[in-house]
Write a structure and sequence with these properties.
single chain; alpha/beta; six-stranded parallel beta sheet; binds S-adenosyl-L-homocysteine
Length: 346
């Protein structure tokens, strides 16, 4: 098995059976995996951890994903949406604290028109030339994606959620389609975005075989970024009784993804941070190299509740960055305040 991990390290093979064996026996190989993944993380990105300011700009959503706390049918949630000036205010604060890369994430909120989003992107870009903008608010038609790209958006995050058609169906209502999500990912790449995809680890009904399919999809699609995090139940969803995903398996998968696609960017996600205090450092040691501090205004931060006990800090952004810097220093990494483009080729 170590030999297979080494081959994966040399980018020579994708063997479904061996990967399945590795997942079933991951506890035996974790140290070796982390060691090799670390080598590649350093080879391609050094000891840099890229910083992105995350703005969760709306928790309205037209969808009803069974796992997600901001689903349309959750009536126990105070809804909010930020206007252009509020979003710009967040970016200004982040910029002044040194951040050069912003992520606008949200539900699929139909109240923003395509042109309004384009305008928000343009305004941020003209206020802060040189920053990178990542969008992440679900499925839209190709024309909308193109308009936002032309107005200056650089990247788009859209997790595929599951590469298995049947498993995808178990996580989403009939109104959502696996085919459309895949089409969106292809469209985004075709337009020229740096594209991020990913999935939840331990999502309801997920098998190791499904995870192998996810890895295979990622291996073939070659995304510029891959975001994964443990599934965490939310009390106001149909999946509230479902078991939480494993942090250790998340770390293992971060390492495997780093071995498969060494040039990809991998965030230590908020879901990882939410489960234990030191977990983002473990994610970094497993091969992650992006961190996304939440710069959503304090008043509404709590309402972007996609799962129970989501991590958030009362520190302001400067304090939090200083805190992170010190922690990263201790494990031999440094926060990188730059656009932080992916080295993955299109
Ligand atoms: N509406 C956007 C953003 C969704 S939130 C979109 O469709 O892309 C970003 C990610 O959070 C989702 O893609 C999903 O993988 C993850 N997520 C949602 N609910 C979760 C839960 N209960 N536990 C862990 N991750 C969750």
């Amino acid at each position: 098995m170590q030999r297979y991990i080494y081959e994966l390290f040399l980018k020579k093979s994708f063997d479904e059976e061996k990967l399945l064996y590795l997942l079933n026996n991951h506890y035996k190989y974790s140290n070796y995996l982390f060691e090799k993944s670390n080598l590649l993380q350093h080879k391609y990105y050094g000891n840099k951890i890229f910083v992105r300011g995350l703005i969760e700009f709306t928790n309205y959503c037209k969808n009803n994903c069974f796992y997600c706390g901001i689903r349309k049918d959750n009536n126990n949630l105070t809804r909010y949406r930020l206007c252009k000036d509020e979003i710009l205010f967040c970016c200004n604060e982040g910029f002044n604290a040194g951040i050069r890369s912003f992520v606008l994430q949200g539900g699929e909120d139909l109240s923003y028109t395509v042109d309004e989003i384009a305008d928000i992107v343009r305004v941020i870009k003209s206020a802060h030339p040189g920053v990178a903008i990542t969008l992440s608010f679900g499925e839209h038609d190709k024309k909308a994606y193109k308009t936002w790209f032309d107005s200056g958006a650089d990247r788009y995050l859209l997790r595929h959620e599951s590469a298995n058609f049947y498993h995808y169906r178990m996580l989403h209502p009939k109104s959502m389609s696996f085919k459309n999500r895949m089409r969106c990912l292809l469209n985004l790449k075709e337009i020229g975005y740096q594209v991020g995809t990913g999935f939840m680890v331990g999502s309801p009904y997920q098998t190791y075989e499904n995870i192998v399919e996810d890895l295979k999809f990622i291996y073939k699609f070659k995304p510029h970024m891959v975001g994964i995090g443990p599934y965490i139940p939310h009390n106001d969803t149909p999946f509230k009784m479902m078991e939480q995903g494993s942090l250790q398996l998340t770390f293992i998968l971060i390492a495997i993804i780093r071995l498969m696609l060494p040039e990809t960017l991998i965030p230590a996600t908020t879901a990882v941070a939410s489960l234990s205090k030191n977990s983002i450092y473990n994610a970094v040691l497993a091969g992650a190299n992006v961190i996304m501090p939440n710069i959503t205004p304090m008043e509404v931060k709590k309402q972007y509740s996609i799962y129970n006990n989501k991590f958030y800090t009362k520190m302001n952004i400067r304090e939090y960055l200083l805190f992170l810097k010190n922690r990263m220093d201790k494990i031999g990494y440094k926060l990188a305040f730059e656009r932080g483009d992916s080295k993955m080729k299109n």
